[in-house]
Design brief:
It is a single chain. The strands form two sheets. The chain has a three-stranded antiparallel beta sheet with strand order 1-3-2. The chain has a two-stranded antiparallel sheet with strand order 4-5. It starts with 22 loop residues before the first helix and ends in a 6-residue tail after the last strand. With 137 residues, it is an alpha+beta fold. Helix content is 42%, strand content 15%. The chain has a single domain, classed as Arc Repressor Mutant, subunit A. The protein contains five helices and five strands; from the N terminus they run ααβαββααββ.
Length: 137
């Protein structure tokens, strides 16, 4: 805290309260498979993830756009640690505004990824099991 009050970081963008975001905007954010992948990776991560730490097949500028859409839809929170922009899933807040939505998305995406990779199951950061079904060949 400085003499003039709390120090704010101008690099930190605004984060809307998920209760103030229209359902239409949230659903539009979830339409894109890259954004669903980001949410799923955050749900399965042990800690918050820096922007460069995601397994995405898009350019840096495209990834930045996807993070912005998710942030403006109230689905993720972004903050800085040094020069790294970190991302966290706003699971509890989104769960209060849209009960079951994120769990359903993560479970569906995890199942889809599991079918492609042939894995069995995983646990999300919320401690819930996200079932992955083995691929049948």
């Amino acid at each position: 805290m400085s003499y003039y009050g709390p120090v704010s970081d101008a690099r930190i963008p605004p984060h809307p309260d998920p209760r103030d975001v229209p359902l239409q905007q949230v659903l539009e954010a979830l339409v894109d498979p890259v954004r669903r992948s980001i949410l799923t990776q955050l749900a399965h991560a042990a800690d918050d993830v820096k922007c460069g730490g995601f397994d995405l097949d898009v350019s840096t500028s495209t990834a930045t756009h996807h993070f912005k859409v998710l942030r403006e839809a109230g689905l993720i929170r972004q903050y800085y640690v040094g020069t790294s922009r970190m991302n966290s899933l706003r699971g509890d807040e989104v769960g209060k505004a849209f009960p079951g939505l994120l769990d359903a998305i993560v479970a569906a995406e995890s199942g889809r990824r599991g079918q492609r990779r042939g894995t069995s199951s995983a646990t999300t950061r919320s401690g819930r099991s996200a079932k992955r079904t083995p691929s049948v060949a």
